[in-house]
Amino acid sequence: MPQPSAQAPAAVAMVRPHRFHPNPDTAADNAFQSQTAQAPEAIARLAHAEVTAAAARLQAAGVRVHLFEDLGERDTPDAVFPNNWFSTHAGGHVAIYPMFAESRRRERRTDVIEMLKAEYRVQDVIDYSGLEPDGMFLEGTGAMVLDHIARVAYTAQSNRADPVALERFCTHFNYEPMAFATADAQGLPCYHTNVMLCVGTDFALGGFHLIRDPARRQAVRERLAESGRAVIELSAQQIGAFAGNALELTGAQGRVLALSARAAASLSAEQKAVIERSATLLPLDVPTIELAGGSVRCMLAGIHLARRG
């Protein structure tokens, strides 16, 4: 069995939505969102079932899942994506983030933080949400893809990743910022880094073609490779299928790569073979959730904290 990895948490927090729907507040800069003719009640019911099934599959693989309910009373359509508003870090550190869309600011909830304090060893909580009135946003591990081993914060520049907020986070949490400009075929930037990049223990999946500057593109590739990782290039089609939106976790039998069934189906046999040298693929069926422009990685807030007791 592979050794425990700082990159692959053994526990996650998830939020099960009761009134899920794609968020109109975030559609302008999220090219991954999709329109649907399904009735709102049907969408909400399907999303609830998808999260329930995903949590059960993760638990069956030996991942500890803290499942919270979002009853929709505060109008929080993106609550299913908790990784954007908080993150946890080895040594007992927790960060709370400033969110770009006003509706997403309502997703922050004290019961999640209190659970972390009760179940894990939390030393401090650094709250950056006070940056919102100044127009500075940093949407957690959506805006940043963190290499917890080499201490690098890979960040696609966007209105959801303010450079000042990024610098503050990196100073507090001891990461080196590595920011870059991105553009898709329509010239639009990636709204979140975690739709184009996944950093595992022994591999990295990336849509490096999206990085606009060729020199910066090569620098990011080299930085990932110098840590000993196999660098797997994802095509535009694979990025569109959310193949970059994956998260490595530690299960009962070793490391797993949680990703959507659609993402897993888009990978080639060669790409899967590279991943499976160190992690077992764990596809989760979340097509309704993906209508909102995020996938499995967005649904999982990894817990990098030591358990109490």
From TrEMBL:
Q: Which residues form a coiled coil?
A: none
InterPro entries of this UniProt entry?
Amdntrnsf_FN0238
Kindly give the Pfam families that the UniProt entry links to this protein: DDAH_eukar (PF19420)
Could you tell me what this protein is called?
Amidinotransferase
Native organism: Acidovorax soli
